[in-house]
Amino acid sequence: MIESVDTILALVLLSVLFSFGTSRLPALIKIIAFQGVAVSIVPLFIGHGLSTGGIVFTLITLLIRGIVIPLCIYLAIKKVAIHREVEPIVGYHASLMVGLILIVAATFVSPKFNLPQSSSNALLLPTAITLLAAGMFLLMARRNAIAMVLGYIVMENGIYLVGTSFSVRAHHIVEFGILLDVLAGVMIMAVILQNIKQAFDDVDTALLRTLKE
Amino acid sequence: MVELVFLVPLLTGVIAFFLPRTSGRPLLVITGFIHLLLSLILWIRRPTALLPSYFAVTPEGLLSLLVISLLFFLISIYTTAYLKEAAIRSENIFTGSMLLFLSTMTMVTLSDHIMVMWIAIEATTLASAPLIYTHRSAASLEATWKYVLICSVGIALALLGSVLIDLSMGVGGVDVPVTFSSLTEVAQRLDPLWLKTGFVFILVGYGTKMGLAPMHTWLPDAHSEAPSPASALLSGVLLNCAYLGIFKTNKIMQAAGLGNFSGNILIVFGLASMLAAATFIIRQTEYKRLLAYSSIENMGIIAFGTGIGGLGAYGAVLCLIHHSLIKSALFLSSGNILLGYGSRLIEGTGNLAKLMPKTFVAFFGGFVGIAGMPPFGIFLGELLIILGAFRSGHYWGVGLFILCICVIFAGFANHVMKIAFGSTGVEIQTKELPNMVWPQLALLFTSVVLFFWMPGTLYQTIVNALM
User: Fold this and answer.
1) What is the percent of chain B with per-residue pLDDT over 70, rounded to a whole number?
2) C-alpha to C-alpha distances, B180 to B186, B220, B251, nearest whole angstrom
3) Contact B141/A192, CB-based, under 8 Å?
C-alpha cells in the first residue's frame, strides 16, 4: 500500500515539473486536472481506515478537483479563444530549474518537521510543500491570468494534501464546504477571465495596471 | 434560532436574483429589518446554536453581528434611494449579492468551528465580488480580478494556518472539537511550535482580507470601484469579519501563554499598515481611495491596539465599532458626492458646503470622527491605545503610531478642505434626497451617543470578549 502512495505522489511531483515547463494552456489545464485526480485519491491509500462517508467524499473531491474545476477553466479559455502566447515573467526553462530546486529543497526540509505521519510516507510532506510553493511560483512568475488561476488551484491542492494527510479528525461536511468554496471561487475567476478577455482582448495581466496609488 | 440569522438573508438573497429589476429594493430593507430584530433577540437571549459544534454565540461575535446588522439596515435604506439615482444595469444581481454578502458576514460572526470560520470568510469574498464589478467598466474588472485573486490566495494561506492549528492538537495529543472556544480552553496543551506557525499563516491570510500592509493592495481598488453602498459594507463590516478571525486566534495564543509572540507580530503589521496609509493619503487624488486608505490606517490602529493588549485591546474594540459607524457614513456620503459631481477626483469637486449642504454635514462630521476628534468614539479608542502602549513600555511603537496619526490627519484634512470649501465651476447633477442623508447622520449620531453613554450591557460584552 505504501508503495502505491509514493507512486502517486511521485506523479504529482512530475506534474509540477510539467506545469512549469509547458507554454500551451490546454496542456497546462490537462496537467492540473491530472494533478487534481492524483491528489484526491491519496487518502484512499494512506490507510486511515476509511468509512463509507470517507470514500464517498473522496469520490466527490475527485469529481470536483479532477473534472469540474479544470473543465470550468477549459470552457472559459475555449470561449475566449486565446491565440497569442503571453510572455511569462520567468522563462520556461528557468521555471523548470526552479521546480527542481523546489522539490530538492522541500525534500531536504521535510524531515526537520518531525511529523508522525511522515515516517511512513516519506514523500507526503515534500509533495505538499512543493505544491504550495509551486502554486505561489506560478502566481508570481506568469503574467497570463489563466496560468495565475491554475497556480491558485495548485496551491489549493497542496493545502488539501496537508489537510487530509496530517489531520485525523476530518469532518466531511466541513471539508465539503471548503471544496464548494474553492469551486465557487474558481467559477467566479473563470467568469472574470472571460470578461477580461472581452474588455482587453487579451489575458495579459500587465494590461491590468490602470489602478494604482 | 441562531442559524436563522444568516439563513434569512441567504434565502431572500437567492430570491432577489430571480426577481424583476427594481423589486429587490424593498426586499433589502425588509431583510435588513428582520436581521436587526433577530440580532437584537440574540443579543438579549444569547441562545445556544442547533449545531453547537459549528456555531456559537460569543461576545466578540455578538458585537460584530450587531454592528453589521445596524449598518446593513441603514445602508439598505440609503441603497433604495441610491438605486433610483444611479443607473445600475443588472440591479437584481446587485441586491441579491448584497443580501448574500450579509448572510455570509453573519455566518462569520456566529461560526465557532475554525474551518467553518474559513468557509464563511472565503464566502464573503465570493459574495462581494459581483458587487465590485457592478459598473462593468475596465477599471472595475481589474479591481474585481485583484480582489478575488489576492484575497483567495491570502485566505488559502489562512486555511493552511487553520490546518496547522489542527495539527498542533494532533502533535500535542489533545482531542477536543476544533472550535475556537474549546481550543482556547485547552490552549496550554497544544503544541506551541505548530500553534505559532498556524497563527502566522492565519494572520497573513485573514490580514490580507483585513487590509493589513503589505497585503493591502487590493483594498483601495475594490473600495473605490464598488458602488458606494457596497463600499460602505466592504469597509465598515467586511474588514471587521476578517479581524474577528485574527482576534479569535490571538485569544488562543494568549491562553497558550504565547501572547507576547502574537502581540509583537500584530504591532509590526499594524504599524506597517499605518505607515503605508500615511504615504498614500498625502498624495491621494481620488476621494474614495482616500477613504479606503483611511480604512487601512484604522485596521492598522486596531491591529496595533490588539497587539498591545490590556487597555489597548479595549481601545481597539472601541475603534473597531466606531470605525464601522463613521467610515460607512463617509462612504455613503462619498456616493452622494460622486452622483452630484460626476467625478472621482478630488480636483473635480469643491465647495461642497454650499452646493450640497446636507451631504457636507455628514461628510465633514465623518471626517472629524475618523480623524480621532471628540465627540466621536475613535478619539477614546485611540487615546486608550496610546495609554496602553505607554503603560506596557512600547515607546518606539507608540511614537511611530502618533507620528502616523498626525501625518494622516494633515493629509486627510488638506483633501477634505479642498472638497468642502475649494472653488469649483461644477453644476450639481442631483438633488439631495432625505433618504440619502439621514442614514449617515444616524450612524454618526450613534457614534456620538456611544461616546457619551456606553450602555452597561455593551461594556460588559466588550469586557467578556477580551477575557
Assistant:
1) 100
2) 10, 31, 9
3) yes
Alpha-carbon gap: A39 to the closest alpha carbon of chain B (Å): 16
Q: Give me the helices (H) in chain A, please.
A: 2-21, 25-46, 52-61, 69-80, 92-109, 124-141, 145-166, 172-200
Buried b (16+ CB within 10 A) or exposed e, B194-212: bbbbbbbbbbbbbbbbbbb
Tell me which chain B residues have a C-beta less than 8 angstroms from the C-beta of A205: 145
pLDDT at A143: 85
Q: Please report, for residues A82, A212, B135, B293, B414, the alpha-carbon distance to residue B285 in angstroms, rounded to integers and kept in the order given.
A: 36, 11, 21, 12, 11
pLDDT, residue A26, reads 87
Give per-residue pLDDT as tens, B164-221: 998 888 888 888 888 999 999 999 999 999 999 999 999 999 999 999 989 999 999 9
Q: Which residues of B touch A160 (CB under 8 A)?
A: none
Question: Which tens digits make up the pLDDT trace of B91-106?
Answer: 899 999 999 999 999 9
Q: Give yes or no for A45 touching B (CB within 8 A).
A: no
CA distance linking residue B143 with residue B139, whole number of Å: 6
Low-confidence ranges of chain A (pLDDT < 70): 1-2, 47-50, 80-85, 116-120, 167-170, 210-213
For residues B22-33, average pLDDT: 90
- Spatial separation of the C-alpha atoms in residues B153 and B307, rounded to whole Å: 25
Contact residues of B toward A, CB < 8 A: 54, 113, 115-116, 118-119, 122-123, 125-126, 129, 133, 138-139, 141-146, 148-149, 152-153, 156, 159-160, 163-164, 166-167, 170-171, 175, 178, 220-221, 224-225, 280, 283-285, 289
CA dihedral A140, A145, A147, A149 (to 10 degrees): 90
How many C-beta atoms lie closer than 10 Å to residue A89's C-beta? 14
